[in-house]
Amino acid sequence: MSFSSDEIIRWQKTDQRYIWHPFTQMQEWEQTPPVIIVEGEGVWLTDIEGNRYLDGTSSLWVNIHGHGHPKINQALKAQIEKISHSTLLGLANLPSTELAQKLIQIAPISSEPPHRLSKVFYSDNGSTAVEIALKMAFAYWQHRGKRFNKKRKFISFVNAYHGDTIGSVSLGGIDLFHQAYQALLFDTIKVPAPTCYRCPIALEYPSCEMACINTVKNAIKDNQADLAGLVIEPLIQAAAGMLTAPPGYLKKIRALCSQYDILMIADEVATGFGRTGKMFACEHEDVVPDLMALSKGITGGYLPLAATLTTQSIYDAFLGEYAAFKTFFHGHSYTGNPLGCAAAVANLEVFESEYTLEKLQSKIQYVQDTLLNWKDWPHVGDIRQAGLMIAIELVSNKETKTPYPLEKRIGVQVCNTAKTLGLILRPLGNVIVLMPPLSVSKEELSRMLSIAGTSIRQLKT
Q: Exposed, middle or buried: residue 218 (CB in 10 Å: 0-12, 13-18, 19+)?
């Protein structure tokens, strides 16, 4: 696919004239010709000018097995020949049924209650998956009777990001993203995130003995009668800058939720489908949440789709005679879209047939070994990794951990350099994030790390 210089300019100007891009300052966007991606193959992207780039962000954390995977391509073509969409309101379709069965079969299982998830509710993106979990948790307690009707509040974490709908923003804790909408939001109880690099209670791990969990415990005890649920990104707060929790923290959160009779909602939108080295992050600590939100990698990065998984007991609370009106009154026009579900089924089959998780382990170790000495570099304050979710935080003072002012756009500088060297990255403020497709080869991974490292070392402050 080739374009003349006139066609390239026309498409760039058309984009600037008509599209409002997400999380983008459009005044700046209109001043520079945009990079327009026209093709993808494996972990490579090609722009309209013919430049090739390694996809270091999995096209914003969604691509799993590389672009243009033949099995997923074929699944979509086959489904298009049958039907592209049919509603789940009053009807069923085969791809959504097959996918629901597969999701429950691979969902976390625990030796402790609630043991397993058993029902799937579909939507179209991570925000709605979380929103659905909120509404299910809220309505569940209302259906349990008067004794539980006060349970209407939620606990969430400072620095959390759960999406951009009003419900999910209410749970969020990133002021830069959420403060502008404060007047629209409902109140939640915020507790400090378990971030060891900048410990919120100024202790050191592991001598702290995970004292941060006591803050959560006290908040739960003080509000137990009012709490419907707790919402957490298991193992790692992604959009906050890949902030990793200490080992065992998630297990303790599950225990608190069980002890004080509140529902645990795990937001696995970013961490699900192999990103942390297991299919779901909760598996690392033998945890089964009461509700689990999934999206991003669910279709392998092909189509928008999301799912909220829950337990049989929560599902049962919505059962009753028609006149009781205990129905879960929520739905989307494209709920359980057959095309998206067909892609998701193929995505899971590729995990199995290509031994994706098994092959991933050596890549995770390779990254860990490669990054060992990066902390000694100027500007590098911390390196965090959960599977192939990798973050390099840049600071102006390594001793005090002082961050660069955001207006200096340090992360943007690094990513712009990387782009000139053939690697697409997108920063989270001063944090350089590398999250390649799981299918990346060792050679491609080596090249990504080399370019990222060079770009960091060339940084001028």
A: exposed
DSSP 295-359: -GGGGTSSS--EEEEE-HHHHHTT---GGG--S-----TTTT-HHHHHHHHHHHHHHHHTTHHHH
Distance CA(353)–CA(70), nearest Å, equals 13
Cα–Cα distance measured from residue 237 to residue 215, given in angstroms and rounded to the nearest whole number: 18
CB contact at 8 A, 394 and 431: yes
437: cis peptide before it, omega within 30°? no
pLDDT at 460 over 90: no
Q: Please say whether the beta carbons of 110 and 302 come within 8 A.
A: no
DSSP codes, 204-219: -TTTTTTTHHHHHHHH
Matching fold, domains 35-65+356-457 and 78-353: no
Alpha-carbon distance of 87 to 92, in angstroms, equals 7
Residues 45-77 have pLDDT tens digits of 999 999 999 999 999 999 999 999 999 999 999
- Which pLDDT value is given to residue 239? 97
Query: What's the token pair of residue 245?
Result: 């929790």
CATH of 35-65+356-457, one of 3.90.1150.10, 3.30.70.660, 3.40.190.10, 3.40.50.11810: 3.90.1150.10
Q: How far apart, in Å, are the Cα atoms of 259 and each of 232, 264, 344?
A: 17, 11, 35
pLDDT of the residue at 1: 78
- What's the mean per-residue pLDDT of the chain? 97
pLDDT tens-place string over residues 293-303: 999 999 999 99
* For the chain, domain boundaries: 35-65+356-457, 78-353
| Residues pairing with 266 in the sheet | 232, 292
What angle separates helix 212-223 from helix 249-259, to the nearest 10 degrees? 20
Q: What angle do CA 329, 165, 59 make, to 5 degrees?
A: 115
- 356 is written with which tokens? 């994706």
**Strand positions, DSSP E, 21-131:** 37-41, 44-47, 52-55, 119-123
User: What is the pTM (predicted TM-score) of this model?
Assistant: 0.97
Strands 119-123 and 243-244, by their bridges, are unpaired
- pLDDT for res 325: 94
CATH number for region 78-353 = 3.40.640.10
